[in-house]
Amino acid sequence: MSRSSLYPEQQLQRRALAWALRLKVNPEKVVIERLPGKWGSCAPNGVVKFATDLAAMNDGFQDYVIVHELLHLRYRDHGKFFKAMMTAHVPDWREVEQELSNATTTRTLENRAVRREGSGPSKDES
Ligand SMILES: [Zn+2]
C-alpha cells in the first residue's frame, strides 16, 4: 500500500485537507513547516500552517490542532460559536487543551499567550 510510504508531513497535510472538507472550509493553502514555539497558525489570507513536528504527535492531538486552526477560517476569535464547533468535531478538546497547558514544555497552540493589553494598534477589529 502506497499510503504508508507517505512522509509524516504529507500524512499531516492530507489529514488537514480531509478536515477542511469535513468542516466545509477552504484554506488558501495548507503548509507544513517548522514553526518554532507553536503548533499551528491561521493567517488572515487563508494560509493555514502546521508545525512539522506535529506529524509525530498522536492523532487526537493532531485533530485538535488541525480543527482549531481550520475553524479560524470561519471564526477569527475563540468565541462561543468557535467552541461549539470544537465540541462538535473534537469532543474532548478541553482535555487536550488542559494537557497542553500542563505540559512541561510551554508551547502554546498559537502565539495567543501574549495578552493584548489594549495598547498598540488593533487592526483586525471590525
Ligand atoms: Zn486559536
Topology diagram in text:
Blueprint: H1 8-23, E1 29-33, E2 40-42, E3 47-51, H2 59-71, H3 80-89, H4 93-102
Helix pairs in contact: 1-2, 2-3
Bound molecules: zinc ion.
Could you list some keywords that capture this structure?
single chain, binds zinc ion, 126 residues, Zincin-like, three-stranded mixed beta sheet
Placed side by side, the strands forming the largest sheet appear as: 1-3-2
Number of strands: 3
Helix content: 25-40%
Would you tell me the structural class of the helices and strands?
A: alpha+beta
Q: What small molecules does this complex bind?
A: zinc ion
CATH topology: Zincin-like
Task: Output the radius of gyration.
Answer: 15 Å
Order of helices and strands: HEEEHHH
Structure write-up:
Strand 2 and strand 3 form a beta hairpin. The protein has a single domain (about 1-100), classed as Metalloproteases ("zincins"), catalytic domain (Zincin-like, 2-Layer Sandwich). It is an alpha+beta fold. The chain starts with 7 loop residues before the first helix and ends in a 24-residue tail after the last helix. Strands 1-3-2 form a three-stranded mixed sheet, with helices on one face. The protein has four helices and three strands; from the N terminus they run H-E-E-E-H-H-H. Zinc ion binds near residues 68, 72, 78, 110 and 112.
